[in-house]
Amino acid sequence: MSIIQPGFSQNPAESSANLRPALGLALVMLAICGGIYSAAVTGISGALFPQQANGSLISHNGKLVGSALVAQPFSAEHYFHGRPSSADNDPMATGGSNLAPSNPELRQRVAQTSAELTARYQVAATELPVDLLASSGSGVDPHISPAAAMLQLQRVAAARGMSPAQLEQLVQQHTELAQWGLFGQPRVNVLLLNLALDAQHPLS
Amino acid sequence: MEVILIFTLALLLAWPLGHYMTGVFSAGPHWSDKVFMPLENGIFKLLGVKSTQGMNWKSYGIAFLLSNLVLGIIAYLILLFQHVLPLNPNGIEGLSWDLALHTAVSFLTNTNQQHYSGQAQLTYLSQGFLIVTLQFVTPAMALAVCVAVLRGILGGRNADDAGEGEERDLGNYYQDTVRAVLRVMLPLAAVVAVALSSQGVPASYSASPTVPVLEQGQSLTEQTIPLGPVSAMVAIKQLGTNGGGWFGPNSSNPQENPTPVSNAIQTIALVLVPMAVVFMAGGMVRRRGFTLLSLSVMGFLSLLFIALAVYSEQQPNAAFTGLAQQAGNMEGKEVRLGTDVSALWATFTTQTSNGSVNAMHDSLNPLAGLVTRSGMLINGIWGGIGCGFVNFLVYVWLAVFIAGLMIGRTPEFFGRKLEKREISWLGVLLVLPSAVILTFTAITVTFPSLTGNSNPGLHGISQVFYEYTSAFANNGSGFEGLGDNTPWWNLTCVVVLILGRYLPLVIPLLIAGSLAKKRRVPTTAGTLPLFNPTFAVTLVTVILVVNFLSFLPSMVLGPIGEALELSQQSAVLAGQ
After folding, report:
1. Number of structural domains, chain B?
2. Helix H segments across B245-355?
3. Strands of A187-189's sheet, edge to edge?
4. A29 HSE (CA, 13 A, CB side)
5. What Å distances lie between residue A129 and A7, A145, B347, B564, CA to CA?
6. How far apart are the C-alpha atoms of A156 and A167, rounded to whole Å?
7. ∠ CA B498-B501-B507 to the nearest 5 degrees?
8. Residue-number span of the structural domain to which B570 is assigned
9. CB A26 to CB B67 under 8 A?
10. With an 8 Å Cβ cutoff, is A157 touching chain B?
11. Is residue A1's pLDDT more than 50?
């Protein structure tokens, strides 16, 4: 069987050194991939998943309070605190520390955080959950590990005048386990937890 | 566990996809013709291309280079003038000429190395329109070249009628490219994009809302939540071994990769087509053994590297010794993902020339740093779409040549002799990576004012070495701490990108064209059998030895030296 067509060209100049197909390919692809594909996929996603497609924004009493996917800075006693951020929690300037394990600057930063945390929570340094000392890749990681939430339990409960047991229940409600039972690590969304705290146990 | 589950799922999905791609690129009718033929014929009419007309290797190569040149010029102009073009609701400025040039070439070469920060420096037109297009077209072009090379192995499409020394028909470049986009990349990307949006990846043309933060009285009082047609781009950046993300920190950003499920989808998308090409290759040359050989060699090296990287990141970061719990290295990683899938991604993304990240590679432990660089230097374990398999084929040719020398026979590949002309060109491909990468690394390291390092000592050398390796391998991942938006970095990387993209695609095309013309020698008892464990082991050895010889000294100065430094440091700290 031969699929060779009568037009098979032996001469490169004849078939390829021609700008029209090259230019045409670029323009057609810009229209199809950049135009039609992007618009269609964006439209369909927005129609099927309006909440997720528009930034997973959270409203509280009718006004926007943030995005469930973007960490906010917390430093008050009555809130749970998130991970260290190398981007000051600014979602327009996201990024990690980019410090190598061998960098003395990293050692220095971790030592400082470690000293602060051991003083605040009165525990040995070797009991501090790593995620509270390591800065995230994005600088807006919205989650902390359950252990990191548990470490903060006493402090937040005291500041809110709640019993630790009551607060522990709330933390557990906000602990997400592996998704579909298969993927990911157990985690707590700090912003959602703090919003729930404000709603259920407002500061008097 | 999760890592094995994701690997297995990717392989299981790549199998039918590879079978489908064999059908798409083989001569003769295929069921997908019914769906796509009318649109394709319209496009070919517009282009003035007779899609049935075959090309020899020279025509094919010229068409490939010319279409790249035209696309590159268009891309450069759009990036340079993005601030006066439409779709710029956030009032973003134009790029400097050298940054625009680097960005255009970087996306044109399927590298997606970024010296800018996505959400702040590119308009919706540049990201959602131009870059998305390049992310579809450039892997399709490389896939086309790969398909042409595979056709050459069996003597071209006119193998039955052409005599010895006659030009061979390797297919029509425009037909192959358009089919690769329409029949392979587009349907896959559409499915993945919508799936990602269901997990929270933004898909919107609205301007970004600004929201006051909950706890006031701190340095940051409000946040602007970035939006845009993000999921459309993220889907193709993963599927097309592109890697250039919407956001600066790529898929570690929770808006780009919101959940563990989105992470699994993106990880599978990352290796899906490169794995499928392996299945397709066996189909195209009508030898199942070829797929089995490639799959076992690549699979072995891939799993070996994954195991090393996962182990590496489960170890504590040396800077945390005594300051926190003994647990995995979480610096630069996200809590929802953890260390294992971050290490898996880091391995895949450097093996496939993708270059997207879901954790910061700068902060990986040294062993994982070694794995990522090895993946890029080999550049043929799965590899970038099309170009990865072509690189692998080059290793196969080399192994055939070396094995031929060892048993004292003229090396043959699919019944055609590898002779002086082919071997000389293989030699060029062999020295090219070390010549380019090491030369530029040496020059840059010699002048510290050029480097813009964020890390001192040996890791500083690693950063420079990584950047050029990533450019040459058309990978695009980076040690992001490097201050790389300078004319020096932009222009030298442009040179490295172009050398790393076009020579490793065009030279194998030449070799395939030259092999195809030769007379077939009959298989005899003396023919070196390719599809058996002995040759697979030879091939693995060749791959490792070639790269070991080229890059051992630079590895010692980089990650190996760092590891030694760190273990010494830890010992001192533990003794305190």
Report:
1. 1
2. 260-284, 288-314, 338-351
3. A143-144, A187-189, A175-176
4. 33
5. 70, 8, 26, 27
6. 8
7. 110
8. 2-207+226-575
9. yes
10. no
11. no
Give chain B's mean pLDDT.
Answer: 91
Does residue B49 belong to any structural domain of this protein? yes
pLDDT for res B574: 61
Residue B215 belongs to some domain of the structure: no
When pLDDT is cut at 50, 70 and 90, the band that residue B353 belongs to is: confident
Contact A73 B219 (CB under 8 A): yes
Instruction: Count CB neighbours of B560 within 10 A.
Output: 17
This model of the complex carries an ipTM of: 0.91
pLDDT at B274 over 80: yes
Is residue A158 a contact partner of residue A131, using CB atoms and an 8 Å limit?
Answer: no
Q: CB-based contact (8 Å) between A59 and chain B?
A: no
CA dist B147 → A12, A116, B7, B140 (Å): 19, 59, 25, 10
Nearest to B359 among A21, A102, A137 (CB): A137
Tokens of A45: 């996603």
* Cα distance between residue A204 and residue A202, in whole Å: 6
CA dist A66 and A56 (Å) reads 9
Average pLDDT over residues B511-526: 87
User: Does residue B374 contact residue B473 with C-beta atoms inside 8 Å?
Assistant: no
Q: Which CB contacts under 8 angstroms, 24+ apart, belong to B42-46? A: B43/A24, B43/A28, B43/B178, B44/B174, B44/B175, B44/B178, B46/A24, B46/A28
- The answer to whether the Cβ–Cβ distance between B203 and A79 falls below 8 Å is no
Nearest to A185 by CA among A172, A196, A175: A175
